Amino acid sequence: MILPIVAYGDPVLKKKAKDIDKDYPKLEELINNMWDTMYNAYGVGLAAPQIGLPIRMFMIDPAPFAEDEELDEAEQAALKDMRKVFINPKITEETGEEWAFSEGCLSIPEVREDVFRKPDITIEYYDENWKKHTDTYSGLAARVIQHEYDHIEGILFTDKLSSLKKRLIKGKLANISKGKIDVEYRMRFPLAKKAR
């Protein structure tokens, strides 16, 4: 089932999410619904707060980036097969020299800005079968994970922009929260006069 994606301005996007346990109600159904929602919106990642749930879970499928011919073959191959669910994740290490990449977000449609992040991360998490993992990721895979991880920490990519950039996009962000935007997927706007 495709769920509405929560738009910029909703308080759930600024909340630090809580861990869940194995008995979380209808977890398998929720995960399936989140995949449907993400693919319907042509996203490469989706965090639970983006569908209104303040829980520590997100998923990524960066396969569309595998088409980027500027990446080496190894990174393309890694991105192609990286469909993953992260439950109760914890980034334990971020290393390397920060690099910029133009990021967007399903909760903030039509806004893209350069965000600086470290290239290498180590993350502990449970998968959808409650198997524990500690993995290291680099490059675009690490970036997609960092972006989604920020969501469960109550951080949006726009929070990482300079104050000048923030001022420049302030009007756009206000319009998004009021629903004054055309999007191809279902959204829930916190300040809209009526639900869409």
Automatic annotation (TrEMBL):
GO terms for molecular function: metal ion binding; peptide deformylase activity. Gene3D superfamilies: Peptide deformylase (3.90.45.10). It catalyses: N-terminal N-formyl-L-methionyl-[peptide] + H2O = N-terminal L-methionyl-[peptide] + formate. It comes from Christiangramia echinicola. Keywords: Hydrolase, Iron, Metal-binding, Protein biosynthesis. The lineage of its organism: Bacteria, Pseudomonadati, Bacteroidota, Flavobacteriia, Flavobacteriales. Binds 1 Fe(2+) ion. Removes the formyl group from the N-terminal Met of newly synthesized proteins. Requires at least a dipeptide for an efficient rate of reaction. N-terminal L-methionine is a prerequisite for activity but the enzyme has broad specificity at other positions. One of its GO terms (biological process) is translation. Belongs to the polypeptide deformylase family. Pfam families: Pep_deformylase. SUPFAM superfamilies: Peptide deformylase (SSF56420). It comes from the Bacteria. It is an enzyme of class 3 (hydrolase). The active site is at 148. Fe cation binds at residues 105, 147, 151. Transmembrane segments: none annotated. This is Peptide deformylase. Its cofactor is Fe(2+). Its EC number is 3.5.1.88.
